[in-house]
Specification:
3 domains
Length: about 260
């Protein structure tokens, strides 16, 4: 059925009604009522047929629109996939989950990987629980915490919340990395620095500061605290050389002084 055929049918029905009207005028009064009922019955059937045909045409149009949209969408997806496949001509190495043993310093490394499993809505919580077990070191404090919960889907979010409270608490993380900075200060107190030691010190300082920034303790907010700690880690010869430098500015704010110290 198409709209052209329906229009032809409508024209024929209209002509037929005009013809019936002309014929009815010629009928005697006694036969008029019976013939009129026949004509009305025919008109009702014609209207039902026309309505049904229009409904079918509308449905066909909707289906065609959906199919065209689906084909276009599929073509876009296929095109994108082909581009990705075309660009990637090497095999990516297999990722291995980093196992967590309960060391607070290792939490950020562990959670940055496991969070992908945690946020994956296609994985059942009962399966996530098993992945969580496999992602902890056997016999460690972290494994003991997980095993204290029955391995069910309902207990998975409880186990995660407890792990975060026990090992991933933001304040606890900040304390750990500040303590690491203090250890560097104490280590420097009685150490003789050489060039290699100074390079290693810079690497350690950068590591602790980046970890603190990940936890929200940025140099913008805490430079006044971090600057004296970082400065105390440096050997005296290094500080004297820096003070003689033309770039040394004692009057600048803590953030600028910290950046300058780390870049010197």
């Amino acid at each position: 059925v198409n709209i052209s055929e329906l229009n032809v049918l409508k024209v024929k029905i209209d002509r037929l009604e005009i013809t019936h009207a002309s014929i009815l005028e010629l009928f005697p009064e006694k036969d008029f009522e019976a013939e009129f009922e026949v004509v009305e019955d025919f008109r009702d059937k014609a209207i039902r047929i026309e309505t049904k045909a229009r409904r079918i045409i509308t449905c066909q149009d909707n289906v065609s629109t959906i199919l065209n949209s689906t084909h276009s969408h599929s073509a876009i997806i296929n095109s994108t996939e082909n581009v990705v496949i075309e660009k990637r001509r090497f095999k990516l190495p297999k990722l291995e989950l980093r196992k967590f043993d309960g060391d607070v310093k290792e939490w950020l490394y562990f959670w940055s990987q496991f969070e992908k499993i945690h946020d994956d809505s296609s994985i059942e919580d009962s399966d996530k629980f098993q992945y969580l077990l496999q992602s902890t070191v056997e016999g460690s404090r972290a494994r003991e915490v997980i095993e204290s919960f029955p391995p069910t889907g309902d207990n998975y979010p409880k186990a995660i919340d407890y792990l975060k409270t026990r090992f991933g608490c933001n304040d606890l993380q900040v304390e750990v990395y500040v303590r690491e900075l203090l250890k560097l200060v104490l280590k420097n107190a009685n150490s003789n620095f050489c060039t290699n030691n100074l390079c290693a010190l810079y690497d350690n300082l950068e590591q602790q500061i980046r970890a603190l920034e990940t936890l929200g303790v940025t140099t913008d907010k805490s430079a006044a605290l971090l600057y004296p700690l970082v400065e105390s880690c440096m050997p005296e010869d290094f500080l004297r050389a820096r003070q003689r430098s033309s770039n040394f500015d004692l009057g600048s704010d803590s953030k600028k002084r910290l950046d300058s110290l780390l870049k010197f």
